[in-house]
Hints:
The two termini are about 35 Å apart. This protein has six helices and eight strands; from the N terminus they run ββαββββαββαααα. It is about 20% helix and about 20% strand. By secondary structure, the protein is of the alpha+beta class. It has two domains: about 10-75 and about 155-170, no CATH class; about 80-140, DNA Binding (I), subunit A (Orthogonal Bundle). The longest helix has 9 residues, at about 25-35. GO terms for molecular function: endonuclease activity.
Amino acid sequence: xxxxxxxxxxxxxxxxxxxxxxxxxxxxxxxxxxxxxxxxxxxxxxxxxxxxxxxxxxxxxxxxxxxxxxxxxxxxxxxxxxxxxxxxxxxxxxxxxxxxxxxxxxxxxxxxxxxxxxxxxxxxxxxxxxxxxxxxxxxxxxxxxxxxxxxxxxxxxxxxxxxxxxxxxxxxxxxxx
Length: 177
């Protein structure tokens, strides 16, 4: 019996016609854009996988580029989401450094703390339970890293992707590992 192809989990980097990164989209959506002629494959899958149909074949893409330019509206602030916060803190607890599972407000909301990038941190369940609605000074705790709003031109793009393909790095302006 053939293996089931992981359509839903694999992500593909979508570039504008100017090679500016736009988003990471599902493999299924990327293949549809390529087959419809709206995008072209810039980099194929590193393993060389090819999708076959009765009339054609398509190289499984890792990076695709739109055929025509798409204007991107300016968005000033990065919206705070659970996935974004966990990505910012690299899934590490701000208090003990363990694996983070929850979000904690440094200054509890019950004490007037805002729900902002600078007041929220990733936290493990044990530390979150121990801290409860106390201030750090009351417990004698310190943050490992001071929370700040994320910056960078491609931060939104990477926040929703668990692991970026190494072929994406030249387009994101980050050094190859």
